[in-house]
Amino acid sequence: MELFNAHSTIPTLLRNVVEHIHKPEETFLIHKKGAEWEEISYMHTLNCADAVSAFFLEKGIVKGDRMGLMIENSPEYVYYDQGIQQIGAINVSIYPTLSEHEVAYIVNDSGIRAILIGNPFLYKKILKIADNCRQLEYIIPAFADYEKIAVPAGLDVKIISFDAILAIAGTLTSEKIEQITRLRLAVKPSDISSLIYTSGTTGTPKGVMLSHSNFVENVKVCLQQIPVIDETETFLSFLPLSHVFERTATYHVCCAQGCKIAYAQSLELLAKNMAEIRPTVMSCVPRLLERIHDKAIKSGTAAGGLKAKIFLWALETGQNYRRKKEAGQSPGLFLSAEKALAEKLVFSKIKEKTGGRLKFMISGGAALPKNVGEFFGNLGIKILEGFGLTETSPVMAVTEYHRQVYGTVGRVIPGIEIGIQNVETKEMINIQTHETFDENFECAEGEIIVRGHCVMQGYFNKPAETAEAIDKNNWFHTGDIGRFFKGNLQITDRLKNMIVNAYGKNVYPTPVENIYMKSLKIDQIFLIGDKREYLTAIVIPNKENLQEAFNLPESFFQKPDVFIEEKEMTDWIGQDLKKLSNELAKFERIKNFKVKRNPFSIDEGEITPTMKAKRKVIETKYAEAINDMYAEAVDSE
């Protein structure tokens, strides 16, 4: 049975599953309702989608209209998305963490006519800006008791509960169902499916236009590259659906393949939800894997003595076993027996916390530090890495299930070309496709450029910016620096992140920061040094470990001073920085640093919703502290 055909669109994928893979009454979605997990069938999902379609058709919504969502991952997201897309409307998902100003910009720039709202906090946010949103006609709360929240006097926007819309499902006539079916079949693969606004480390957010074909082809080739995903999988969804990675790697994959989707309650309850749902696949970001790694290392070694020795022996055994297998060699009877013992004593206990059924996790959104990937490999937990941007639907490359090269983001997906271009001369260093793969191939680094089915249709209402991003030969310029290593794509850093020191030496911050992030004392680190003689850094400590080491109360982190000045604490962190510096070239080593009391914040505009540092914002905001670091380093010479 074919999952895809030449006419496949996002809404037809789900219908295909019901026609060919699962019965309508089988479970599609799972969410926590009160104290219990509730299962939702395909039939209920499609009925709710039809109700959404019918409501908006009655209100005059037509193909091409933009429809907003500002809601957490939930069944309601799916009902609304499927309902609007099957009548040809366009999904505009907005990050819940954005400021009122940013939300208003997106609502107005895209011309959103109706917006689904997930909770009281977000409802209040949209109410404050609604009068300034010219084309907004409907606000749709998807939570109870929204009537208790005061609405600004004279608000010229209609408010209707999502429950009232879904209730239409029981009154749909056969004529209305036929109309919806006709409209669904009239949606073309080339039509725009979604506008996703870039979080923007610099400049104004831009609406990335992604077609149904962009998404469908991306899902199709990723399933070819990872053929072990089948209709029996249960995905646990926790990354925001407002981001293209979760949308494609979880939601769209499950719509196409017939997998179940369970929605985590929150990041704080993720560990508990994993144990309850026992997922087989999860999409995640490197930061989550780093935290699991750090906690496992701390837990395994904290007690010292025999327990720590067993833990470290198990990791070494896992590493030896993994390396043999990856080299295509037999581990032998003795090493296999040691691995089985390590599994029983150590690895099984770590795996139990994930539910014990994980086939693999897909890491995206940023480069995964090599040592973290190897750690999970040593445990026997497979981490597949992928790479892409919002503008590339998103996946350009992803790890093959049977071939792991740590520190890379996998093989080029079928149907596209990835080029490496010299940053200064613009000469093409190399072009690779899925078919040209050679596991021994390597090349010099440069900017990563791409062309093919994954590339966006352009930026909404921004032809000049589109022309700047996509050149006359249809290459999209990613702004990322990388190369091919052992046939796989390897990311070095962002072009805009590159630091050029006073001596003209190029320093890419991410690989350097990843070396220092090996310290369990450090949670985040931000490198500084452009046009300077040497590097400095702003360091965010691991709060839990700092509290434990110095017996600190919570009030310590609520002090108004931005930076921690206590010498014993800065020395404590400095010990690890000095030790890890030995892994770096001299010009890559940090000469001075400041310890920031609390993490960089989305609300303060210091990082994007995808946790990327806004370099200019941070350097401007903390300019005085940065200048002090350089003055102190000079004074100490």
Overall residue-averaged pLDDT value: 94
Helix content: 25-40%
CATH C-level class of the largest domain: Alpha Beta
- Per CATH, what is the topology of the largest domain? Rossmann fold
Give a written overview of the molecule:
There is one protein chain. The strands form five sheets. A nine-stranded mixed beta sheet has the order 2-1-11-10-12-13-14-15-16, with helices on both faces. The mean pLDDT is 94. Helix 2 packs across helix 3, helix 4 crosses helix 5 (120-129) and helix 12 crosses helix 14. It has three domains: 10-187, ANL, N-terminal domain (Rossmann fold, 3-Layer(aba) Sandwich), CATH 3.40.50; 286-356 and 358-496, ANL, N-terminal domain (Rossmann fold); 498-635, GMP Synthetase, Chain A, domain 3, CATH 3.30.300. It has 637 residues and is of the alpha/beta class. The chain is built from 20 helices and 28 strands. A hairpin with a 6-residue loop joins strand 14 (382-388) and strand 15 (395-398). The chain is globular and about 70 Å long.
Structure keywords:
Rossmann fold, GMP Synthetase, Chain A, domain 3, nine-stranded mixed β-sheet, eight-stranded mixed β-sheet, 28 strands
